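Re: that chain you flagged

S.,

Sorry for the slow reply, it's been a week of failed gels. I finally had a moment to sit down with the sequence you sent. For the record, here it is as I used it:
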Amino acid sequence: MSIQVGDLLPDVEIRAIGATIEQTQTGTLFAGRKVVMFAVPGAFTPTCSNRHLPGYVQHFAEFQARGVEVMCLAVNDAYVMQAWATSQQVPHELLMLADGNGGFTQALGLQLDGSAYGMGLRAKRFALYAENGVVKVLQVEAPGEFRVSTAEAMLEAIG
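Prediction finished late last night. Pasting the structure tokens below so you have them in one place:
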């Protein structure tokens, strides 16, 4: 079963990439913060690179103006996420979360089996808004869609 609105995000080890790569716990990462976290099936993939991440980079200042931090999650290793952030000119304040073994994604119940496409376990495309680690908004895309997890949709959802 996937995480639901009102649930506390699971506390799992993850790598956070900003100016550096840091090993941390998701419980620590979300504590005391207002965060929009969006997930992509994979770094450097077409929709993720051409539309999803660029939308959050483009609207990053709008989230900041609302006191909301932004994080991007993918089941990729930290070095791939770091290279992707560099190639996409992601500001260091927009944290890239590398869920290398998919532990956080599985704990959220939002994993996608991409084996048919040679991708293995990945994250579904989704976005959530959490305050102090508690999910307030959760928007999961239907397979093949890109509507409810966009930066614009999340700005509208959080008001």
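What I noticed first: The CA atoms of residues 30 and 133 lie 5 Å apart.

Talk soon,
D.
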